[in-house]
Amino acid sequence: MGNNDLQLGDIWTDPIFRGKGIATSAINYIFSHFSSRDITFWYVVNERNLASVNLAEKVGFSFCGKGKRYSRYGISIIGRYMFSNDLDLNKGR
Questions:
Q1: Contact assessment for residue 5 and residue 92, using Cβ atoms and an 8 Å cutoff
Q2: Model confidence at 19: pLDDT above 80
Q3: What is the DSSP code (8-state) at residue 63?
Q4: Is there a contact between 69 and 79 (Cβ–Cβ < 8 Å)?
Q5: Checking phi first, is residue 63 left (phi over 0); if not, alpha (psi -120 to 50) or beta?
Q6: What single DSSP character describes residue 79?
Q7: Taking Cα atoms as reference points, which of 21, 92, 26, 25 lies closest to residue 60?
Q8: b/e per residue 49-73 (b: at least 16 CB within 10 A)
Q9: Quick check: 5 and 42 in contact, CB under 8 A?
Q10: CB 54 within 8 A of CB 31
């Protein structure tokens, strides 16, 4: 990701509110809020999380590859994703 890129992910909705378009609305708000800037959006999701994969596709993201998360200094919150070398990283939204 570049300095002006924005990563979306780990989006969670309480089960009683799922299916009501809340996450879709939130992401679309983020898109509209940052649309005047030169930003590429990235959506990181576990491929087994089908609800999140479907959400990403619904709001316009497309699959661009697989990666693995690595922790730094044993602390996962400051970790990073490393992607395969064979990916086309120009496919962000």
A1: yes
A2: yes
A3: -
A4: yes
A5: beta
A6: E
A7: 92
A8: eeebbebbeebebeebeeeeeeeee
A9: yes
A10: no
Q: For residue 43, with 0-12 CB atoms within 10 Å meaning exposed, 13-18 middle and 19 or more buried, which class applies?
A: buried
Residue type, 88: D
CA angle 32, 36, 38 (to 5 degrees): 115
SS3 content of the chain, % helix, strand, coil (to 5): 25, 25, 50
What would the two tokens of residue 79 be?
């970790």
Residue type for 25, please?
Answer: S
> pLDDT digit string (tens) for 35-92?
777 888 989 888 888 999 999 999 999 988 887 777 777 776 777 777 765 545 455 4
Q: In this structure, what DSSP letter does residue 33 have? A: H
